Amino acid sequence: MPLKVDGVVKRLRELGADFERVPAKDVARLRRAFAKTLGDHPYFDFLARIGRLHGIKSEMLSPEEVLAQHEAQRRFFEHASFGDEPEDEENLRIEQAFRGTLVPFQYVRTRGDFFCFVTSNVTRAGPLILDAYHDDCELAHPGDALTNPRRKTPYTRSFTQHLAWIAEGLAHDSGRYPPE
Predict the structure, then answer these.
(1) pTM for this model (two decimals)
(2) Taking CA 134 as the corner, what is the angle to CA 47 and CA 69, rounded to the nearest 5 degrees?
(3) Does residue 178 have a cis bond before it (omega within 30 degrees)?
(4) Any idea what DSSP says for residue 109?
């Protein structure tokens, strides 16, 4: 039986989460900004109907922060982490291209990590939702589960499942994502 978002929201509230209203014009601006990559993703409806999750260790970014963090990912440059050899330059190019497809939407204060939609890894079920560490500098490896939608991954494409995993982490005071 599929998870129902209202049940997950109720559980999050029981665990101390709160939801902040997001103005309709801000949700509309996000929808326009990501219309080609996220389409009619349930995240937008969640923001419009329920609001922005906050009051816990893992808070949703405001629409302005989503846009700013997406731009920061697009500009990601960590040259020193790759080296100076020709293959290192190619790895940097691949990493920068992959980073440009990340749409950070939730921030984990305790670790400085972001939950991101991976818009380069989309199936009919939606984009992959990834927990990207703030200091990861080698996320993209050609053929792996992050860059290849056909490869099996422990992550989810379901926004409701993502929220359920956040609730499970809160309930067990665990930072594990996805939970075991």
Answers:
(1) 0.85
(2) 40
(3) yes
(4) T
Residue 165 CB contacts under 8 Å (≥ 6 apart), including other chains: 156, 177, 178, 179
Query: pLDDT digits over 116-171, tens only?
Result: 999 988 888 899 898 876 555 555 555 454 555 555 567 888 999 999 999 998 88
Q: How do beta strands 58-60 and 52-54 pair?
A: unpaired
Those residues whose C-beta lies under 8 Å from the C-beta of residue 123, and which sit 6 or more positions away, are 149, 157
CA-based Rg of the chain, rounded to a whole angstrom? 16
Which token pair is 123?
């199936």
Rounded Cα gap, residues 117 and 85, in angstroms: 31
